[in-house]
């Protein structure tokens, strides 16, 4: 089968996780770059990685890479590509664009020229004198120019991979599903350990943990734009999905809890977990953070508390951080992972973190403050 050069895009700070995921899925030639990871694969791999990548945003096919300093060069090199191998005669192919530190800096012009070059090529191949219909399947293209290097990609995903399909409702400032999965993976949680999200909001972090615990492919509940393309056989898609289904293990006993002070959020979390088919695996309960007590050991706490972005909220939020410190510090064998944009978090928590990791929650710079628990041997 034909192999494609592929890119999995990711939020800044979690590209390394996407690289690890690809290696775990059996891809060996994996190159991690800023906000993306390169690998190679067949049509089957395109479906498989869309289905299984928990922390990526989308999977793209690299159509071509070249240098262009003039619009002429951009046009000619784009037109020379075998577009008919990707696009059907009636393909709808919107072209998105971006340009950084390049001579060709006008994005609308760059998009228009790439579009025209593809139209010209397709018209020649298909002997069309009239406009291309663009009434068929969608093929989202992107032209990205960085330091005069042009990268032409075809998006196989469609709506971003974080859209798992189980979020019926979300609360204020929700965490994207792939970011929630990243936090669970960074916490090195194993399914036999207790897992707690004390400020669970609409339940995204516990749901992602349960999906990891049960070995459920995160994309099982949705489709991908490439599944409508005629050169991607439906039986391949079917068999990759069936294989993923067979790997899920619903019998594993998980100890996952999600708490929130707001009862309405707890109800929303339950609805979302039910939609994901995971309500039986997570205990959701209305509870204030400071009321958490446990005799269990070696657990993991992952929290995405409010950040207090508005000054009026800051005092409330910092009070919450103090409560976190008072409640969690005594839990010596537990590891705690707390994501916030408040860089003074440690002061209010009352303890230096074992490690901090910079992550972007959307465009917002946040830090994951990590407090590693002492191992209990028995």
From TrEMBL:
Looking up InterPro entries in the UniProt record yields:
DNA_methylase_N6_adenine_CS, RlmKL-like_Mtase, RlmKL-like_Mtase_CS, RlmL_1st, SAM-dependent_MTases_sf, THUMP_dom
The alphabetized UniProt keywords are: Methyltransferase, RNA-binding, Transferase
Q: Which SMART domains match?
A: THUMP (SM00981)
Q: Which residues form the THUMP domain?
A: 45-156
Which SUPFAM superfamilies did the record assign?
S-adenosyl-L-methionine-dependent methyltransferases
Pfam families (UniProt xref): RlmL_1st, THUMP, UPF0020
Quick check: keyword Nucleus in the entry? no
Entry's Gene Ontology molecular function annotations:
RNA binding; rRNA (guanine-N2-)-methyltransferase activity; rRNA (guanine-N7-)-methyltransferase activity
Q: Entry's PANTHER family?
A: RIBOSOMAL RNA LARGE SUBUNIT METHYLTRANSFERASE K/L, RIBOSOMAL RNA LARGE SUBUNIT METHYLTRANSFERASE K_L
Name-wise, this protein is: THUMP domain-containing protein
Q: Organism, per UniProt?
A: Liquorilactobacillus aquaticus DSM 21051
